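Researcher: Checking consistency across runs. Here is formate--tetrahydrofolate ligase again:
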Amino acid sequence: VDACEKTTNFRPLYQKHQPLQEKLMSVCEAGYGATNVEMSELATQQLAHFEKLGFNELAVCIAKTPLSITTDSSVKGAPVGFTVPIRELRLCAGAGFVYALSGSVMTMPGLPDKPAFMNLDLDEDGNIIGLS
């Protein structure tokens, strides 16, 4: 409770009214130390679509590797001056944010690329195979 009553120097990285791309750049620059955001063609199209639908004022979040401040899990320490590649954007309108996917990050950590049910089948007697 005492910590909640202390004054802080907290300042948001961006303002609500800023365009989504500026918000992403602010997070990458101030939060990660990047100097550039490179949007894929798909992400650029999605960005335009979300803004056309009026979702400009939503918060932004970036999904990237947890192993580095960059999007390259092999880079350690606190590098600066790198580019953050954004491959896709996803809209969570009900929750009130847009999140950017960067690198090869999976949005459900710990799950395989190919779900186990893909290996299931039935033999000619109707028994399930592929469970082991």
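Researcher: Does this match what you'd expect to see?
Model: One thing to look at in this run: Strands lie at 36-39, 59-63, 83-92, 97-102, 121-122, 128-129.
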